[in-house]
Amino acid sequence: MPLAQNPLSVEVELPREDVALITVDGYLDVDTATEFQAHLANQLHHGRRHFLLDLSSVPFMDSSGMNIILRVYQETRKTEGSVHVISPTPAVRRILDLTGVSITVPISESVDEALTRVDAGPEHPEEPGGQSI
């Protein structure tokens, strides 16, 4: 079985019981998105409600990576959790801005800033009628 052309490295740390810091290194694309999704699903399964996604070492992300970020965002909303992107590279930030994801998912410059946002509570309250944004 051939290796992915641009392998992905995913590291998980737990700064708090309900917070997972996911550090991603490499291309986040159709070839590597499944691995990224598996790490997030595992943390959801173990009760993590807040996800800090460090994308500072991701030179490229396509719609596959973006869709996974949006899916985990939707899942965390069910448990009053949150998703925060930390220090995206300029190319990834551009994708997040152009698609509007950065409006929904907060972007922080550091882990400490993201943890402060977790402590502050939800930035995007639910719309009337209980429907998430």
How does the SSE layout of this entry go?
Elements: E1 9-16, E2 19-25, H1 33-45, E3 50-57, H2 63-77, E4 82-86, H3 90-99, H4 101-104, E5 107-108, H5 111-120
Parallel strand pairs: 2-3, 3-4, 4-5
Antiparallel strand pairs: 1-2
Helix pairs in contact: 1-2
Report on this model:
The protein is α/β, with parallel strands linked by helices. The protein has helices spanning 33-45, 63-77, 90-99, 101-104, 111-120, and strands at residues 9-16, 19-25, 50-57, 82-86, 107-108. It has a 5-stranded mixed β-sheet. Helix 1 runs parallel beside helix 2 (63-77). The longest helix has 15 residues, at 63-77. It is globular, with a radius of gyration of 14 Å. The model is unreliable at 125-133 (pLDDT under 50).
The mean pLDDT is: 88
| General shape | globular
Q: Main beta sheet: strand number and arrangement?
A: 5 strands, mixed
End-to-end span in angstroms?
A: 41 Å
Care to count the β-strands? 5
Percentage beta strand: 15-25%
Helix content estimate: 25-40%
Assembly type: single chain
Count of helix runs: 5
Order of helices and strands: EEHEHEHHEH
Could you tell me the radius of gyration in angstroms?
A: 14 Å
Given as residue ranges, the uncertain stretches (5+ residues, pLDDT < 50) are 125-133
